[in-house]
Amino acid sequence: MPTVRTRRLTAASMILAASLGLSACGTGGGAATNQQYQPGIGANLRTGDVQLYNALLVAGSDDTLAFSAGVLNTTDSPQTLESVTITPLGGSGSGSVTADPATDVELAPRQLFTIGRAGELAGIDGATLPVGRYADVTLTFSDAGEVEISVPVVARNASYADVAEAPPSDTADEEQATEEAAEAEENPAG
Question: pTM score > 0.70 for this model?
Answer without folding.
Answer: no
